[in-house]
Amino acid sequence: MRKSMAIFLLVIFSFCIFAVTSLWKFNIGSSIVHCPGVDGQFVYVIDGENSLYKLSLDGKVVWKVTISRGFSSSPSIDKNGNVYIGSWDGGIYKIGKDGRILWRYKTEKYVFSTPALGEDAIYVGSQDGNFYALSLQGKLLWNFKTEGGIYSSSGIDKDGNLIFASSDGYVYKLDSFGKLLWRFKIGMETNSSPAIRSNGDILIGSYDKSLYCISSEGKLIWKFTSDGGIYSSPVIDKDGVVYFCTEEGTLYAVNFSGRKLWELQTGSNIYSTPVIGEDGVVYFANQYGDVYAVNSKGKQLWKLSIDSVRASLNLCNSLLIIVTENGMVNALKVSSKNVMKSDWPKFMKDIKNNGRF
């Protein structure tokens, strides 16, 4: 009895320390640098070659779609299981839940921006400098021209307005008809996509090492200067705390007024966006391949080394989905069941990468 109790306590103690388990891996075989999409039943991942994969939550291939020059954005999934995605050939694709290509809209350059999904339209930027609004049938509704290529994905606020950044160094806010409401100059160009608060405030990072908080009217509220360029996107928890990472390998937590709460240095570049679990655990990874779980106070709960990570993380049904630059899709069993119900808990807000408040 005493021996059984000792084994039981050892198991409990081990679980408390190592509250993460690798459930499955799937080797795509080429570099993955874009955030996977999840719809509660399936995982959608693009490889570094030419294909989009639909996987079951236990890591089995449902279908694979291949195009000549390959896909170049993270996938966005609608309520019917259709996928919207950009490509290196300048195309914006809609792919049906059965893997058939339903339509393609051609832009002039490649589409790195993840399509944001509105009620009856999709919104996406292209490297040709245009921000496009397309109907769900693939017809052009309008386009808005900026002075630089658009890497940043758009966020849709609660009023249906669109916020995105261009490599011309401006953050733009358009209404749903394509009218410019304002633009705000940040220090340098950015790949960072916006996080939006319920009051309309916008948070976005820049290569100038700063995280900007911009009001819904386009005025600077505060600016926080970090230790390095900000490539990835900020996320927001239910208490209004903002988490973001830098190319110097640091995770920062700042409060709603821009005051630093804490920082955690990892020693390697971070290009991926964290995801916040419903229990408050923040998951993130660096390019060296270290995956971290920390609590809201900055305490490290666990660390797991896999392989170089550049893509943002996703979380569903207690599965932390992490893709790596060596082509591996990893599913880890973690303590958080789902993403936090907060203003903006992950890249593009929700697990489907819809980007809509």
Overall description:
The protein contains one helix and 32 strands. A hairpin with a 5-residue loop joins strand 18 and strand 19. It is mostly beta strands and 357 residues long. The termini are far apart. The N terminus is likely disordered. Strands 1-32-31-30 form a four-stranded antiparallel beta sheet, with no helix packed on it. Strands 2-3-4-5 form a four-stranded antiparallel beta sheet, with no helix packed on it.
- Structural class determined from secondary elements: mainly beta
Strand order of the largest sheet: 1-32-31-30
Count of separate DSSP helical elements: 1
Specify the biggest β-sheet: 4 strands, antiparallel
State the helical fraction.
under 10%
Output mean pLDDT: 94
The gyration radius over C-alpha positions equals 20 Å
Shape: globular
Low-pLDDT residue intervals, each spanning 5 or more residues? 1-18
What would the keywords be for this entry?
about 350 residues, mainly beta, four-stranded antiparallel β-sheet, about 40% strand
Topology record:
Blueprint: H1 2-17, E1 21-27, E2 37-38, E3 42-46, E4 51-56, E5 61-66, E6 76-77, E7 83-86, E8 91-95, E9 101-106, E10 116-117, E11 121-125, E12 130-135, E13 140-145, E14 155-156, E15 162-165, E16 170-174, E17 180-185, E18 195-196, E19 202-205, E20 210-214, E21 220-225, E22 235-236, E23 242-245, E24 250-254, E25 260-265, E26 275-276, E27 282-285, E28 290-294, E29 300-305, E30 314-316, E31 319-323, E32 328-333
Antiparallel strand pairs: 1-32, 2-3, 3-4, 4-5, 6-7, 7-8, 8-9, 10-11, 11-12, 12-13, 14-15, 15-16, 16-17, 18-19, 19-20, 20-21, 22-23, 23-24, 24-25, 26-27, 27-28, 28-29, 30-31, 31-32
